[in-house]
Protein backbone atom coordinates (compact mmCIF):
# COMPACT_ATOMS: atom_id res chain seq x y z
CA UNK A 1 0.00 0.00 0.00
CA UNK A 2 1.26 3.50 -0.84
CA UNK A 3 0.62 6.61 1.19
CA UNK A 4 0.05 10.10 -0.19
CA UNK A 5 1.90 11.57 2.77
CA UNK A 6 5.03 10.14 4.33
CA UNK A 7 4.97 11.34 7.92
CA UNK A 8 2.17 9.04 9.07
CA UNK A 9 2.70 7.04 12.25
CA UNK A 10 0.99 3.87 13.46
CA UNK A 11 -1.75 2.97 10.90
CA UNK A 12 -4.59 2.31 13.30
CA UNK A 13 -4.27 5.50 15.38
CA UNK A 14 -7.13 7.97 15.36
CA UNK A 15 -6.11 11.46 16.41
CA UNK A 16 -9.16 13.68 16.61
CA UNK A 17 -10.99 15.87 19.08
CA UNK A 18 -14.19 16.89 17.29
CA UNK A 19 -15.78 18.55 20.32
CA UNK A 20 -12.75 20.76 20.89
CA UNK A 21 -12.49 21.59 17.21
CA UNK A 22 -16.16 22.53 16.97
CA UNK A 23 -16.02 24.63 20.13
CA UNK A 24 -13.08 26.78 19.02
CA UNK A 25 -12.67 29.05 16.02
CA UNK A 26 -10.09 26.83 14.33
CA UNK A 27 -7.91 23.79 14.68
CA UNK A 28 -4.99 24.21 12.32
CA UNK A 29 -2.99 21.22 13.63
CA UNK A 30 -3.43 18.19 11.36
CA UNK A 31 -5.58 15.39 12.77
CA UNK A 32 -6.19 11.83 11.64
CA UNK A 33 -9.30 9.69 11.32
CA UNK A 34 -9.65 6.07 10.18
CA UNK A 35 -12.47 4.32 8.32
CA UNK A 36 -13.01 1.49 5.88
CA UNK A 37 -12.87 3.82 2.86
CA UNK A 38 -11.99 7.42 2.00
CA UNK A 39 -15.68 8.01 1.30
CA UNK A 40 -16.61 6.79 4.80
CA UNK A 41 -13.98 9.05 6.41
CA UNK A 42 -15.30 12.07 4.52
CA UNK A 43 -18.84 11.33 5.66
CA UNK A 44 -17.70 11.14 9.30
CA UNK A 45 -15.82 14.43 8.94
CA UNK A 46 -18.82 16.08 7.34
CA UNK A 47 -21.02 14.91 10.22
CA UNK A 48 -18.59 16.44 12.74
CA UNK A 49 -17.56 19.65 10.99
CA UNK A 50 -19.86 20.27 8.01
CA UNK A 51 -17.89 21.98 5.23
CA UNK A 52 -15.19 23.24 7.61
CA UNK A 53 -12.81 20.29 7.21
CA UNK A 54 -10.08 19.96 4.58
CA UNK A 55 -8.42 16.65 3.65
CA UNK A 56 -4.66 17.10 3.25
CA UNK A 57 -3.69 13.47 2.70
CA UNK A 58 -4.84 9.86 2.86
CA UNK A 59 -3.49 6.37 2.66
CA UNK A 60 -4.78 2.80 2.60
CA UNK A 61 -3.41 0.06 4.87
CA UNK A 62 -4.16 -3.47 6.03
CA UNK A 63 -5.14 -4.23 9.62
CA UNK A 64 -6.30 -7.15 11.72
CA UNK A 65 -6.18 -10.79 10.86
CA UNK A 66 -4.28 -13.63 12.49
CA UNK A 67 -0.60 -13.59 11.57
CA UNK A 68 -1.50 -11.56 8.49
CA UNK A 69 -4.36 -13.85 7.40
CA UNK A 70 -7.79 -12.30 6.91
CA UNK A 71 -6.58 -8.71 7.02
CA UNK A 72 -8.98 -5.98 5.96
CA UNK A 73 -8.23 -2.77 4.12
CA UNK A 74 -8.71 0.56 5.90
CA UNK A 75 -8.18 4.18 4.97
CA UNK A 76 -6.53 6.80 7.17
CA UNK A 77 -7.21 10.46 6.41
CA UNK A 78 -5.20 13.46 7.57
CA UNK A 79 -7.25 16.63 7.89
CA UNK A 80 -7.47 20.11 9.36
CA UNK A 81 -10.51 22.10 10.50
CA UNK A 82 -11.02 25.50 8.93
CA UNK A 83 -11.72 28.56 11.11
CA UNK A 84 -15.33 29.29 11.91
CA UNK A 85 -16.22 32.84 10.78
CA UNK A 86 -17.29 35.30 13.51
CA UNK A 87 -20.84 36.46 13.52
CA UNK A 88 -21.46 40.04 12.45
CA UNK A 89 -22.20 41.02 16.06
CA UNK A 90 -18.98 39.45 17.38
CA UNK A 91 -16.86 41.15 14.76
CA UNK A 92 -18.54 44.51 15.33
CA UNK A 93 -17.97 44.38 19.09
CA UNK A 94 -14.33 43.40 18.65
CA UNK A 95 -13.62 46.21 16.22
CA UNK A 96 -15.59 48.70 18.33
CA UNK A 97 -13.47 47.83 21.35
CA UNK A 98 -10.25 48.16 19.33
CA UNK A 99 -11.37 51.54 17.98
CA UNK A 100 -12.27 52.91 21.40
CA UNK A 101 -8.94 51.81 22.84
CA UNK A 102 -7.06 53.35 19.94
CA UNK A 103 -8.87 56.68 20.19
CA UNK A 104 -8.46 56.88 23.94
CA UNK A 105 -4.84 55.79 23.94
CA UNK A 106 -3.50 58.89 22.21
CA UNK A 107 -5.04 61.37 24.66
CA UNK A 108 -4.15 60.05 28.10
CA UNK A 109 -7.33 58.08 28.30
CA UNK A 110 -9.64 61.02 27.59
CA UNK A 111 -11.53 61.57 24.35
CA UNK A 112 -11.83 64.98 22.72
CA UNK A 113 -15.17 66.32 21.56
CA UNK A 114 -14.16 65.97 17.91
CA UNK A 115 -13.16 62.37 18.49
CA UNK A 116 -16.48 61.61 20.14
CA UNK A 117 -18.30 63.26 17.26
CA UNK A 118 -16.60 60.98 14.74
CA UNK A 119 -17.11 57.71 16.62
CA UNK A 120 -20.63 57.04 15.29
CA UNK A 121 -19.53 57.66 11.70
CA UNK A 122 -16.48 55.41 12.02
CA UNK A 123 -18.47 52.65 13.69
CA UNK A 124 -21.04 52.74 10.88
CA UNK A 125 -18.28 52.47 8.30
CA UNK A 126 -16.72 49.59 10.21
CA UNK A 127 -20.06 47.78 10.41
CA UNK A 128 -20.59 48.05 6.65
CA UNK A 129 -17.05 46.85 6.01
CA UNK A 130 -17.44 43.91 8.40
CA UNK A 131 -20.74 42.84 6.84
CA UNK A 132 -19.21 42.90 3.36
CA UNK A 133 -16.16 40.87 4.45
CA UNK A 134 -18.26 38.32 6.31
CA UNK A 135 -20.43 37.89 3.25
CA UNK A 136 -17.34 37.17 1.13
CA UNK A 137 -15.98 34.75 3.74
CA UNK A 138 -19.29 32.89 3.85
CA UNK A 139 -19.42 32.51 0.07
CA UNK A 140 -15.77 31.46 -0.28
CA UNK A 141 -15.97 28.91 2.55
CA UNK A 142 -18.99 27.18 1.03
CA UNK A 143 -21.23 27.94 4.02
CA UNK A 144 -23.70 30.10 2.06
CA UNK A 145 -25.93 27.18 1.08
CA UNK A 146 -29.60 27.70 1.69
CA UNK A 147 -30.93 25.83 4.73
CA UNK A 148 -33.01 23.54 2.48
CA UNK A 149 -29.91 22.57 0.50
CA UNK A 150 -28.08 21.75 3.72
CA UNK A 151 -31.01 19.57 4.88
CA UNK A 152 -31.09 17.75 1.53
CA UNK A 153 -27.33 17.18 1.72
CA UNK A 154 -27.73 15.62 5.17
CA UNK A 155 -30.51 13.35 3.93
CA UNK A 156 -28.41 12.20 0.97
CA UNK A 157 -25.46 11.51 3.28
CA UNK A 158 -27.73 9.43 5.53
CA UNK A 159 -28.77 7.41 2.49
CA UNK A 160 -25.10 6.87 1.60
CA UNK A 161 -25.12 8.58 -1.79
CA UNK A 162 -21.62 9.33 -3.08
CA UNK A 163 -20.09 12.78 -2.65
CA UNK A 164 -20.06 13.39 -6.42
CA UNK A 165 -23.75 12.48 -6.66
CA UNK A 166 -24.61 14.76 -3.71
CA UNK A 167 -22.68 17.66 -5.23
CA UNK A 168 -24.57 17.16 -8.48
CA UNK A 169 -27.91 17.43 -6.66
CA UNK A 170 -26.75 20.53 -4.76
CA UNK A 171 -25.62 22.24 -7.95
CA UNK A 172 -28.98 21.52 -9.60
CA UNK A 173 -30.84 22.98 -6.65
CA UNK A 174 -28.75 26.15 -6.79
CA UNK A 175 -29.14 26.59 -10.53
CA UNK A 176 -32.74 25.52 -11.08
CA UNK A 177 -34.67 26.65 -7.98
CA UNK A 178 -35.31 30.22 -6.91
CA UNK A 179 -34.84 31.41 -3.33
CA UNK A 180 -38.61 31.41 -2.89
CA UNK A 181 -38.81 27.80 -4.07
CA UNK A 182 -35.93 26.79 -1.80
CA UNK A 183 -37.87 28.26 1.13
CA UNK A 184 -40.53 25.59 0.51
CA UNK A 185 -38.78 22.46 1.83
CA UNK A 186 -41.65 20.14 0.83
CA UNK A 187 -41.21 21.33 -2.76
CA UNK A 188 -37.43 20.86 -2.52
CA UNK A 189 -37.79 17.29 -1.22
CA UNK A 190 -40.29 16.38 -3.91
CA UNK A 191 -38.01 17.85 -6.59
CA UNK A 192 -34.95 15.95 -5.33
CA UNK A 193 -36.87 12.68 -5.08
CA UNK A 194 -37.93 13.15 -8.70
CA UNK A 195 -34.32 13.78 -9.72
CA UNK A 196 -33.17 10.64 -7.91
CA UNK A 197 -35.92 8.68 -9.65
CA UNK A 198 -34.93 10.00 -13.07
CA UNK A 199 -31.31 9.03 -12.44
CA UNK A 200 -32.30 5.36 -11.93
CA UNK A 201 -32.34 3.42 -15.19
CA UNK A 202 -34.58 0.35 -15.39
CA UNK A 203 -33.82 -2.37 -17.91
CA UNK A 204 -36.95 -2.80 -20.06
CA UNK A 205 -38.76 -6.11 -20.22
CA UNK A 206 -37.88 -7.52 -23.65
CA UNK A 207 -39.13 -11.05 -24.48
CA UNK A 208 -36.82 -12.87 -26.88
CA UNK A 209 -37.25 -15.69 -29.32
CA UNK A 210 -36.37 -19.10 -27.83
CA UNK A 211 -34.06 -20.35 -26.75
CA UNK A 212 -33.53 -17.33 -24.51
CA UNK A 213 -30.11 -17.73 -22.87
CA UNK A 214 -29.68 -16.03 -19.47
CA UNK A 215 -26.16 -15.73 -18.03
CA UNK A 216 -25.29 -14.33 -14.60
CA UNK A 217 -21.77 -13.06 -13.93
CA UNK A 218 -20.28 -11.28 -10.94
CA UNK A 219 -17.96 -11.60 -7.95
CA UNK A 220 -18.02 -14.44 -5.47
CA UNK A 221 -20.67 -14.45 -2.76
CA UNK A 222 -23.30 -12.33 -4.52
CA UNK A 223 -25.85 -15.17 -4.81
CA UNK A 224 -25.78 -15.98 -8.53
CA UNK A 225 -26.83 -19.62 -8.10
CA UNK A 226 -29.81 -18.76 -5.89
CA UNK A 227 -30.81 -15.94 -8.24
CA UNK A 228 -30.78 -18.25 -11.27
CA UNK A 229 -33.03 -20.66 -9.38
CA UNK A 230 -35.37 -17.77 -8.52
CA UNK A 231 -35.55 -16.64 -12.17
CA UNK A 232 -36.27 -20.14 -13.43
CA UNK A 233 -38.71 -20.88 -10.60
CA UNK A 234 -40.66 -17.68 -11.22
CA UNK A 235 -41.14 -18.61 -14.88
CA UNK A 236 -42.54 -21.98 -13.83
CA UNK A 237 -44.76 -20.44 -11.15
CA UNK A 238 -46.15 -17.75 -13.48
CA UNK A 239 -47.00 -20.31 -16.15
CA UNK A 240 -48.83 -22.43 -13.57
CA UNK A 241 -50.80 -19.44 -12.25
CA UNK A 242 -51.80 -18.44 -15.78
CA UNK A 243 -52.65 -22.07 -16.64
CA UNK A 244 -50.14 -22.00 -19.47
CA UNK A 245 -47.82 -24.82 -20.58
CA UNK A 246 -44.71 -25.09 -18.44
CA UNK A 247 -41.76 -23.45 -20.21
CA UNK A 248 -38.97 -25.78 -21.30
CA UNK A 249 -36.00 -24.79 -19.17
CA UNK A 250 -32.49 -26.14 -18.76
CA UNK A 251 -29.68 -24.97 -16.48
CA UNK A 252 -25.90 -25.21 -16.89
CA UNK A 253 -23.29 -24.71 -14.20
CA UNK A 254 -19.71 -23.85 -15.08
CA UNK A 255 -18.89 -23.08 -11.45
CA UNK A 256 -16.29 -25.68 -10.50
CA UNK A 257 -14.48 -23.41 -8.02
CA UNK A 258 -17.03 -23.28 -5.20
CA UNK A 259 -17.57 -26.46 -3.19
CA UNK A 260 -21.18 -27.58 -3.51
CA UNK A 261 -22.12 -25.15 -6.31
CA UNK A 262 -23.18 -27.91 -8.72
CA UNK A 263 -25.01 -29.82 -5.99
CA UNK A 264 -26.89 -26.68 -4.94
CA UNK A 265 -28.08 -25.99 -8.49
CA UNK A 266 -29.09 -29.64 -8.97
CA UNK A 267 -31.22 -29.49 -5.79
CA UNK A 268 -33.01 -26.41 -7.13
CA UNK A 269 -33.43 -28.15 -10.50
CA UNK A 270 -34.94 -31.22 -8.89
CA UNK A 271 -37.50 -29.09 -7.03
CA UNK A 272 -38.60 -27.45 -10.29
CA UNK A 273 -38.19 -30.54 -12.48
CA UNK A 274 -35.56 -28.68 -14.50
CA UNK A 275 -32.52 -30.62 -15.79
CA UNK A 276 -29.02 -29.37 -14.89
CA UNK A 277 -25.83 -29.92 -16.91
CA UNK A 278 -22.19 -29.31 -16.01
CA UNK A 279 -19.74 -27.63 -18.38
CA UNK A 280 -16.04 -26.95 -17.97
CA UNK A 281 -15.15 -25.49 -21.35
CA UNK A 282 -16.53 -23.52 -24.28
CA UNK A 283 -16.84 -26.82 -26.17
CA UNK A 284 -19.05 -28.25 -23.39
CA UNK A 285 -21.34 -25.23 -23.40
CA UNK A 286 -21.58 -25.27 -27.20
CA UNK A 287 -22.37 -29.00 -27.24
CA UNK A 288 -25.16 -28.67 -24.66
CA UNK A 289 -26.60 -25.61 -26.40
CA UNK A 290 -26.64 -27.25 -29.83
CA UNK A 291 -28.10 -30.48 -28.44
CA UNK A 292 -31.15 -28.85 -26.83
CA UNK A 293 -31.67 -25.47 -28.52
CA UNK A 294 -34.44 -26.70 -30.81
CA UNK A 295 -36.52 -27.80 -27.83
CA UNK A 296 -35.81 -25.07 -25.26
CA UNK A 297 -37.51 -21.87 -24.16
CA UNK A 298 -34.84 -20.82 -21.65
CA UNK A 299 -31.25 -21.82 -20.93
CA UNK A 300 -29.77 -20.48 -17.67
CA UNK A 301 -25.99 -20.48 -17.15
CA UNK A 302 -24.49 -20.18 -13.66
CA UNK A 303 -20.90 -18.93 -13.54
CA UNK A 304 -18.15 -18.96 -10.89
CA UNK A 305 -17.41 -15.84 -8.90
CA UNK A 306 -13.97 -14.30 -8.99
CA UNK A 307 -12.36 -11.31 -7.34
CA UNK A 308 -12.41 -8.25 -9.64
CA UNK A 309 -8.60 -8.45 -9.48
CA UNK A 310 -8.51 -11.99 -10.89
CA UNK A 311 -8.23 -10.84 -14.50
CA UNK A 312 -6.89 -14.17 -15.76
CA UNK A 313 -9.81 -16.35 -14.65
CA UNK A 314 -12.40 -13.72 -15.56
CA UNK A 315 -10.90 -13.58 -19.04
CA UNK A 316 -11.03 -17.38 -19.34
CA UNK A 317 -14.68 -17.41 -18.28
CA UNK A 318 -15.48 -14.75 -20.88
CA UNK A 319 -13.98 -17.06 -23.50
CA UNK A 320 -16.10 -20.00 -22.32
CA UNK A 321 -19.29 -17.97 -22.72
CA UNK A 322 -18.40 -16.56 -26.13
CA UNK A 323 -20.57 -19.01 -28.08
CA UNK A 324 -21.80 -17.62 -31.43
CA UNK A 325 -25.50 -17.81 -32.19
CA UNK A 326 -26.71 -17.50 -28.59
CA UNK A 327 -29.69 -15.21 -28.10
CA UNK A 328 -28.49 -14.15 -24.66
CA UNK A 329 -28.99 -11.68 -21.85
CA UNK A 330 -25.98 -11.24 -19.59
CA UNK A 331 -26.59 -9.79 -16.13
CA UNK A 332 -23.94 -8.41 -13.79
CA UNK A 333 -24.91 -9.54 -10.29
CA UNK A 334 -23.97 -7.37 -7.30
CA UNK A 335 -25.06 -7.06 -3.67
CA UNK A 336 -26.96 -4.04 -2.37
CA UNK A 337 -24.34 -3.41 0.31
CA UNK A 338 -21.31 -3.29 -2.02
CA UNK A 339 -19.05 -0.29 -1.43
CA UNK A 340 -19.02 2.40 -4.11
CA UNK A 341 -15.29 2.05 -4.79
CA UNK A 342 -15.57 -1.75 -5.14
CA UNK A 343 -18.59 -1.44 -7.42
CA UNK A 344 -16.66 0.84 -9.77
CA UNK A 345 -13.94 -1.83 -10.06
CA UNK A 346 -16.49 -4.61 -10.58
CA UNK A 347 -18.26 -2.68 -13.34
CA UNK A 348 -14.99 -2.01 -15.14
CA UNK A 349 -13.57 -5.54 -15.03
CA UNK A 350 -16.83 -7.21 -16.12
CA UNK A 351 -17.37 -4.85 -19.08
CA UNK A 352 -15.75 -7.49 -21.31
CA UNK A 353 -18.91 -9.63 -20.95
CA UNK A 354 -21.00 -6.89 -22.60
CA UNK A 355 -23.63 -7.39 -19.90
CA UNK A 356 -27.05 -5.93 -20.60
CA UNK A 357 -28.02 -4.83 -17.09
CA UNK A 358 -27.56 -5.37 -13.37
CA UNK A 359 -29.26 -7.57 -10.77
CA UNK A 360 -29.02 -6.28 -7.19
CA UNK A 361 -29.14 -9.08 -4.61
CA UNK A 362 -29.42 -9.24 -0.80
CA UNK A 363 -31.44 -6.04 -0.56
CA UNK A 364 -32.56 -7.17 2.89
CA UNK A 365 -29.00 -6.80 4.20
CA UNK A 366 -28.84 -3.00 3.97
CA UNK A 367 -31.13 -0.06 4.70
CA UNK A 368 -29.42 2.43 2.36
CA UNK A 369 -29.05 2.05 -1.41
CA UNK A 370 -27.33 5.37 -2.14
CA UNK A 371 -23.89 3.93 -2.90
CA UNK A 372 -25.22 1.49 -5.50
CA UNK A 373 -27.66 3.96 -7.06
CA UNK A 374 -24.96 6.65 -7.26
CA UNK A 375 -22.44 4.47 -9.10
CA UNK A 376 -24.98 2.83 -11.43
CA UNK A 377 -26.34 6.26 -12.34
CA UNK A 378 -22.89 7.71 -13.01
CA UNK A 379 -21.90 4.63 -15.06
CA UNK A 380 -25.27 4.58 -16.92
CA UNK A 381 -26.05 0.97 -15.99
CA UNK A 382 -29.71 -0.14 -15.93
CA UNK A 383 -31.15 -2.40 -13.22
CA UNK A 384 -33.24 -5.44 -14.17
CA UNK A 385 -34.10 -7.32 -10.95
CA UNK A 386 -33.75 -7.03 -7.19
CA UNK A 387 -33.73 -9.88 -4.67
CA UNK A 388 -33.99 -10.15 -0.90
CA UNK A 389 -33.81 -13.36 1.07
CA UNK A 390 -33.12 -16.99 0.19
CA UNK A 391 -36.61 -18.28 -0.65
CA UNK A 392 -36.96 -19.82 -4.11
CA UNK A 393 -38.76 -18.85 -6.27
CA UNK A 394 -39.91 -15.97 -4.04
CA UNK A 395 -37.97 -12.89 -3.03
CA UNK A 396 -37.22 -11.66 -6.56
CA UNK A 397 -38.95 -8.95 -8.55
CA UNK A 398 -38.47 -6.62 -11.46
CA UNK A 399 -36.52 -3.52 -10.48
CA UNK A 400 -38.73 -0.51 -9.88
CA UNK A 401 -37.98 3.19 -9.45
CA UNK A 402 -40.96 3.41 -7.10
CA UNK A 403 -39.48 0.62 -4.95
CA UNK A 404 -36.15 2.43 -4.60
CA UNK A 405 -37.74 5.80 -3.87
CA UNK A 406 -40.10 4.47 -1.21
CA UNK A 407 -37.08 2.97 0.56
CA UNK A 408 -35.25 6.29 0.90
CA UNK A 409 -34.59 7.02 4.56
CA UNK A 410 -36.22 10.10 6.15
CA UNK A 411 -37.38 11.66 2.87
CA UNK A 412 -41.02 12.63 2.61
CA UNK A 413 -42.39 10.51 -0.24
CA UNK A 414 -45.54 11.45 -2.14
CA UNK A 415 -46.49 7.90 -3.15
CA UNK A 416 -49.28 8.92 -5.51
CA UNK A 417 -47.01 11.37 -7.28
CA UNK A 418 -44.09 9.01 -7.84
CA UNK A 419 -46.37 6.18 -8.97
CA UNK A 420 -47.87 8.55 -11.52
CA UNK A 421 -44.47 9.81 -12.73
CA UNK A 422 -42.58 6.50 -12.64
CA UNK A 423 -45.27 3.96 -13.50
CA UNK A 424 -43.71 0.80 -14.94
CA UNK A 425 -44.81 -2.50 -16.43
CA UNK A 426 -44.88 -5.31 -13.88
CA UNK A 427 -44.10 -8.11 -16.36
CA UNK A 428 -41.39 -10.48 -15.23
Describe this entry's structure for a reader.
It is a single chain. The protein is an alpha/beta fold. It is built from 16 helices and 11 strands. It has an 8-stranded mixed sheet, sandwiched between helices. Helix 14 (370-378) links the parallel strand 9 and strand 10 (383-387). Helix 5 (147-158) packs antiparallel against helix 6 and helix 9 (224-241) runs parallel beside helix 10. The longest helix has 28 residues, at 113-140. The two termini are 45 Å apart. The relative contact order is 0.11. Residues 1-26 and 137-143 have low confidence and may be disordered.
What distinguishing features does this structure have?
single chain, 428 residues, alpha/beta, eight-stranded mixed β-sheet, three-stranded antiparallel β-sheet, elongated, disordered N terminus
First-residue to last-residue Cα separation: 45 Å
Total strands: the figure is 11
Percent helix range: 40-55%
What topology, given as strand order, has the largest sheet?
A: 6-5-7-4-8-9-10-11
Describe the global form.
elongated
Q: Can you write the helix and strand succession as a string?
A: HEHEEHHHHHHEHEHEHEHEHEHEEHH
Question: What's the rounded overall pLDDT mean?
Answer: 80
Précis, in short:
This protein has 428 residues and is α/β, with parallel strands linked by helices.
Set out the fold topology.
Elements: H1 18-23, E1 27-35, H2 38-49, E2 53-63, E3 72-81, H3 88-105, H4 113-140, H5 147-158, H6 163-176, H7 179-182, H8 185-199, E4 212-217, H9 224-241, E5 249-253, H10 261-272, E6 276-278, H11 282-292, E7 298-302, H12 311-321, E8 327-335, H13 340-349, E9 357-361, H14 370-378, E10 383-387, E11 396-398, H15 401-406, H16 415-421
Parallel strand pairs: 4-7, 4-8, 5-6, 5-7, 8-9, 9-10
Antiparallel strand pairs: 1-3, 2-3, 10-11
